Amino acid sequence: MAAGFLAPAVEPLEARVEKLAVGIDVVRPDGDGPFPVVIQLHGCGGRKPLQDRWAGVVRDAGWAAVIVDSYAHRNISDTQAYATVCTGLRLRGAERAGDLFGAMEWVRRQAWADAERIVATGWSHGGWTALDAMAMEPGAEAERLTGLTGLVEEPLAGLVGAFLMYPFASLPSIARLRGLRVDAAPLAIVGGRDVIVGGRGLGAALRRMKTPGAPVEVVLFDKATHAFDEVEATDLRVRYDAGLTRRAEALLQDYLRAAEARSGIRA
C-alpha cells in the first residue's frame, strides 16, 4: 500500500452514525437479546459476500453480526477502491477507525445489543482499521486522525476483543509505529503464503507489537494466501481454501466464547 495521503474530511460523530446506519446489515440470533455484538470491517476491496457468510458463523455462536460498509457513504466504487484505497492513496486505517467508532456508537443505541461486549473483526484493511483504532489516543488525536468531531470520551467503550484476518500492519499503520493503547486480547490469522500484506514477517511484526497486556496472538496458517476465505476471489495472488476457512471459522467461534467472559473497555 503506497504512501500517498488525503486528509480526512471533518464531520460530527452523529452525522457519521446516521450515514453508517443506512448501509449497516445486521444478522442476529432469534429473540430479543441483548446479544453480544461482532462488528465486521471489510477489506480494501469493499463489502463482499464473504461478510454474509461470516455473519452466519457469528450468529451461530450466539452473537449478533453488524456488517459495516465503509464505501457506500463515501461513494467509493469498486474500481475506485482498488485504485485508491488498496494502494494507500485514500482512506488509511486511522481515518477509517472513525467508522468503527461510529458503528460502536450505533450499537450502543440498539435495544437488542449488549453494548458491554463488542468484538471488532477486520479483514486486511479492516484489520488495519481495528489496530489503528486501538492504537490512537482518545480526544484530540482521535478527532484529528478520523476527522470526527464530538467523539465520546472513550470511543472503544465496550470492546472486549479484536479478531483480525490477515491484517495490514505495515507503515503507515500507527499501531505498527507505537503499539496498542487498549488491551482487547487481539488474535490475528496470518497466511504463510500471503504476498499482499506479508506472511511470516507480518506475524513477527504483530508479535512484537507493544500492548498494555498480553501480546497479539498470531495464528499462522502455513499454506494460506491472502483472502483464503473468499470463494469469489479473482486475484491471481489469492487462492480459496475451504478447509482453512472452516478452521478460521472455528477459531472465531472459540474466540467469541472466551470473549463473553471478559469485561469491556470502560467509558
TL;DR?
Helices cover 36% and strands 18% of the residues. With 267 residues, the protein is α/β, with parallel strands linked by helices.
What can you tell me about this protein's structure?
Helices cover 36% and strands 18% of the residues. Helix 1 crosses helix 4 (93-108) and helix 4 (93-108) packs across helix 5 (125-135). The protein is built from 9 helices and 9 strands. The chain is an alpha/beta fold and 267 residues long. The protein has a single domain, classed as 3-Layer(aba) Sandwich (Rossmann fold), CATH 3.40.50.1820. The strands form 2 sheets. Strands 2-4-3-5-7-8-9 form a 7-stranded mixed beta sheet, with helices on both faces. Helix 7 links the parallel strand 7 (159-165) and strand 8.
What keyword list fits this structure?
267 residues, alpha/beta, Rossmann fold, seven-stranded mixed β-sheet, two-stranded parallel sheet, 18% strand, globular
Number of strands: 9
Which class in CATH terms? Alpha Beta
Binned strand content: 15-25%
CA radius of gyration = 17 Å
Order of strands in the sheet with most strands: 2-4-3-5-7-8-9
Q: What count of helical segments does DSSP give?
A: 9
Proportion of helical residues = 25-40%
Helix/strand/pairing category: alpha/beta
Major sheet description: 7 strands, mixed
Tertiary shape: globular
Query: CATH superfamily membership, which one?
Result: Alpha/Beta hydrolase fold, catalytic domain
